[in-house]
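Now for one record:
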Amino acid sequence: MRKIKFSKSFNLERTFYPSFNLALYEKIDKNKYVKLVGLDEGKLIEVRDNGVIYTSLSYELLKYTIGLWFNPLAYISQVKGESLWVAKAFTKYYADVGLSVNPLDKEYIFIAIFLSRRTDYHKNVVNWCKKLWLMSKGDLGKIVRGNLKLIGTSFQLRQLPLALKDYIDLNISRKSADLWEIRRNILKCRWCGPKIADAYLLFAEACTEAVPCDKHLISMVKKLNLIRFSKLPVKRYCLKYTCEECPLTGDCLRSLFSQTFGKLSGWLQTLFYIHDKIYCRSELCKICFLKNRCLEAKVCFPQ
């Protein structure tokens, strides 16, 4: 394996935690993973202290995997007004967390995203994916035609073959400069809504202005009183309009969040996911770096 020394440290486990890349890897030790499927299958990555990385991954895959491709500090100046504190606070606190995406294994990222609807990602989706990779051995046709009841009986697994067939038939993984076209094509796949489409843009197309409006984003936006919104993305509008053209643009969380945070939007969404699951779910308000800004913390722990 190659040894690479960087000027900053990386927390690979936290970086993988909100990423659909996690479903493509097997953890074999702390901060040490092996690639299970797709490009560089069977190759290792290990992050040690002081920014030292041992890996047999290609550099192109490595930079997307650990987040080297995206530097949030380059975009903080684009955030204006009262929202600037959020960008600065999260950049400082999560300095060792990268934005882990994968435009080199788009089909597998789509599968992981599709399976993540209304279920526990870490408990169920990652486990399902590992079984799918073992069953299909790199042949997506085996998933389209296969009997997935051998893996599980959830509605996500029942629906996956037809959704994946749509994805393949629409040739969505091909290179396209038009991200809105890609978004609309994802929405044309059966059972795929705006949250799946935006997660695909972020994690498979490396579009950091895309914002999957999941429950963690909604929760953090409300607790930090970041944006006043009254609507979430509506599929029939998303199929017809871009955010700029959409009649809901002034009320929709996806549009307003992207307008507010620009190229930091997708990165912040992943950090909100980490923070909401690790801090908020465990009610760690007293030690949270956001406690003086969070409306919920102020109610529960008034000073």
Summary: The domain at 71-99+208-303 is CATH 1.10.1670 (Endonuclease Iii, domain 2).
